[in-house]
């Protein structure tokens, strides 16, 4: 079992008649290689010091046929790949030791074919046997030569996606740690023959260089991959498996010195050495449990093999070695590397993928199912006419309409039946508000010239045109004012005025106004303190602190300077009713508005209570029904089985029936109690609703009075002069009337009431006493009327 959790290693000796039995021996179990050597064997210096090594591997392939090698090393891996595991088989070793022979084999001799053609044959045999799976096989083949990747199948004419042999391939890592070679052509193989064609095509493209040790030595790392995509034909889900079998023929591992190479060959050897050194470093790091960083990216080889060595991948290495005494040093070096490989842990696992298209179909089915479930629940709960479909254009338009009505206070409720509608309500709120903002901006634009405050050229042009601006670029007044010219003029009472600072434009009789918000601010058009001055270009406003200030006809919208292009124009009409109403609620009508809100929140909380109670009553009702049915069942059973009667002739019931009766009694009690409570709260709600209605009416009425009093002439037209604060001594007729009522007209009851209010501090008690007094007063009035009528008839 320990073998399953690490990389497997097999040592394959290249057949030779000069096998050094003196130096190399195997243990009987066929897994241990013992090497005995004298130090400096190669230097031919007489040295009697013996060195012994012992290498335990997973298997020794000595004089083994290609058949045996495949069965021992690759057969299971191929099957694992078809099951969904990624698998990698590497051939590592000295140049000429038989790596290519092992992986590809002798192409001219069928008997000597290597692991790749055999794996291809087994894959297609197995696919035929697996009729319950739809399996798709694809082939890719690339080499890494001098740290550059080349697609060995890019030359195929049918390869649409493929590019040229020397086109750039790049390594891309997926979020799940998988690696893919971007630009590498993938070729669908429908049968063994097609797959073999790809192998031979790639073989002819391999970079081959003559070499001192091996005339046909491959100087590149070659990776042949069989990609398997398999999906069950019996299961209807979107799941599928994507796995791959990498067969890697590494370049020779010998040291540069030994090959005697120079020039290009030397450079090749340098790259090969570098990549194999990094492969070794990566292998050491992978074997170290405490290492967090694995240097995969150091070379193309390790980066491309990142998801193919150890980890979730079944990994096997064949260490190709020579048996001759002259190659002992390299053999030892190769076997040392092999032992390091054996320390790499593996935890093979299948990674399942989901076909996005099928997944969408599955989810659609699930949505259908959930909708049906919802419908059923709604039917059971007596909620009808609820649709969960996407909202239609007309429904959206309807929500938009409701939102507008709500904003105009024409309605207090918006009909919402599901989450989708609720979201749409919010969206429409946003749309309407954005629209309103835009509308306000547009209105400003139609009335003012909008300049970008940071546009210095435009500001200079304005100044040249005689339009006064201060040092901050704010408009200082009207063109009329500018036309008057002359020295600076300071407004005596403006809190914003900067005394002593000279206006750049000079000559403006007006002064700098604060940049006011784009929307008419509450109070801007309020009746208080806005003085009419049609002949002037400025509007004098009385500030809340009593100071006077000058308000200009310019505003700023989002940092833009607004310059009134009509110069003298200023508001000559009352503020729109909605704006005025907002102000009224904050000022004159604040008390009644506060009471209205209190009543509303009271009403709201009562509604919540009713909602909860209704739920409780319904739940109790259900429980009563259930208990009643259970009791009836129980009683029927008793009748059928025959009743027990005690000595007194009373029917004897069992414990369960007794419990049911008690439970039913308690439930009925709860039901009655809750129902009574529900009725009470409902009547409270009725009362609260009336209060809210009354308050609303009163608020509106008072506002109407106030509005017409403040802005309208008697004939109902807007009174521009009424923008001003009522001039001292000029009072509204109604106020005059009230003011004329002598104090002595306060009747005795009023006096008493005021006395009470001063004596009784408690607000609640005052309210109570007032109410009592009002009722009493009404009765007295009624009596008086009743007495007066007969007298009139007379
Ligand atoms: N097990 C074997 N049986 C028969 N011939 C073999 C065996 N192993 C290797 N050979 C022969 O040895 C020669 C070199 O083998 P091969 O090309 O496979 O070596 P290599 O390790 O791939 O070399 P390089 O690192 O240069 O690619 C070839 O002619 C091959 O046929």
From TrEMBL:
Subunit structure: Interacts with HYDIN.
Keywords: ATP-binding, Cell projection, Cilium, Coiled coil, Cytoplasm, Cytoskeleton, Flagellum, Microtubule, Motor protein, Nucleotide-binding, Phosphoprotein
Family membership: Belongs to the TRAFAC class myosin-kinesin ATPase superfamily. Kinesin family.
Comp. bias regions, Polar residues: 538-547
Domain Kinesin motor as annotated: residue spans: 6-344
Name assigned to this protein: Kinesin-like protein
Protein role: Essential for normal male fertility and for progressive motility of spermatozoa.
